[in-house]
Design a protein that fits this description.
52% helix; mainly alpha
């Protein structure tokens, strides 16, 4: 039994060493300089913002004056979550902050972009924190806590690290949109962007949706029509 465990232990160590070597060669740690480069690129991508040589100073000023700043840098205090008649936590939202911190680091290293790039207009995604419990700001106002729930951060981190997306965040975004359309029974027209020119799926989907005059068919019905056109060819085919 001891011999078997030793072999398994050696195998696990070799796998971990191999994975670490691959990450260092192909997805090296993000430096401060490269991260700030991603921030600058994200700002440039905003057409309504003229990026000047002084953008770091203006960004620092905006950041310093943001009333959510204490929360966004993880400085929740008992006063932020105080509720009349209840004893506040001494370290509120710690697990949520740690989970989101871990998630945030995945995007620059694995995909060369920011979390805000993914959870934004580019991929037609937005985090809805309206149902999060409300917190007290220093200026006396109350707003939903901007930090995502721990389950959200943990689950999204697990998703983005899957190799089934082939390094294409657009495909993951479409899957998230699809799941939420079903979950919320959204009947609005779904504008799917073709993130994979080599696949016939998105092209076929767009054709089927354009033929749904009046939008009477559900997402399930549309999906069934697409599958029917791929009959015998598999779901994801070229």
């Amino acid at each position: 039994m001891k011999t078997i465990w030793k072999n398994e232990e050696r195998y696990i160590k070799e796998m971990m060493d191999s994975s670490a070597e691959w990450m260092n060669q192909n997805k090296p740690p993000v430096t401060y300089r490269s991260f700030m480069g991603l921030v600058a690129q994200a700002l440039k991508d905003k057409k309504d913002m003229n990026l000047s040589a002084e953008w770091p100073q203006s960004l620092r000023k905006e950041w310093a004056e943001d009333p959510l700043r204490p929360l966004l840098i993880g400085q929740h205090t008992p006063n932020h979550v105080r509720v009349d008649g209840k004893e506040p936590s001494k370290n509120p939202r710690r697990s949520e902050r740690e989970a989101f911190h871990s998630l945030y680091h995945v995007f620059p290293r694995m995909y060369g972009c920011l979390y805000e790039d993914f959870m934004g207009p580019k991929y037609q995604l937005a985090y809805d924190n309206i149902e999060n419990r409300r917190i007290n700001l220093d200026d006396g106002s109350r707003v939903p806590d901007p930090f995502p729930a721990r389950n959200f951060s943990d689950n999204l981190k697990c998703l983005v690290n899957q190799n089934m997306w082939m390094g294409n965040l657009g495909i993951l975004a479409i899957c998230i949109q699809y799941v939420n359309i079903l979950r919320t029974r959204d009947t609005r027209t779904w504008k799917v962007i073709n993130y994979d020119d080599e696949s016939r799926f998105f092209e076929t989907w767009q054709t089927v949706v354009s033929q749904n005059i009046g939008g009477h068919k559900s997402i399930d019905d549309l999906f069934s029509l697409v599958k029917h056109q791929f009959s015998g060819q598999g779901f994801y085919c070229k």
